[in-house]
Amino acid sequence: MSRLAPPPIPPRLRDVLKDYPVHLEQLQQELNKFAERTEPSLAPFEEAAWIIESALDAFVIDAIGEQKVAEASGDPAAIAKAHEKAAVMAIASGKRTWLGDGSLLDYFSGGIGRPSDDGL
Question: What is the pTM of this model?
Fold first, then answer.
């Protein structure tokens, strides 16, 4: 059965999240799961974009939660770190940050994401 090659994380998004390797890994794992599905996708670009959006939304929610915990602790260093993380996640979640670079669309329209014929 053919599968999609896993889409890479768009370069601009990878750059924004460069200081958060765990988030990058989680995001790539979600994209890998998308590629490993056995049912065909009628709109792979849109589905991959939705997967990225969903993961980024979860990152923002988690960062806001961490920010609230840090603020409750009263620790200035933890508060500053949490505010920075929340700001980065908010920037990352903006579609213009990653969708506007065109790399995801190029990936699917350029044939890179088409099913492989090697039986994997």
Answer: 0.83
